[in-house]
Design brief:
Elements (H helix, E strand, L loop, with lengths): L1 H9 L18 H9 L22
Organism: Intestinibaculum porci
InterPro entries: P-loop_NTPase
Protein name: Uridine kinase
Length: 59
């Protein structure tokens, strides 16, 4: 199933594609991101890398 989705995305040549993955704990988000990252020119940004603790927030 995921392979078919990736093929459809790759058909959009010369157009940037942004994919956001959301879901519950242990739903397979990281596994899906790993599969997508195997594609040429794929860049993965993990939101955990941007997480700020309460004391670090400006609000």
């Amino acid at each position: 199933m995921i392979e078919v989705m990736i093929e459809e995305i790759l058909k959009r040549k010369h157009r940037p594609v942004i994919i956001a993955i959301d879901g519950r704990c242990a739903a397979g988000k990281s596994t899906l991101a790993l599969l997508l990252s195997e594609q040429p020119d794929a860049t993965i940004f993990h939101m955990d890398d941007f997480y700020l603790q309460g004391r670090q927030r400006n609000i």
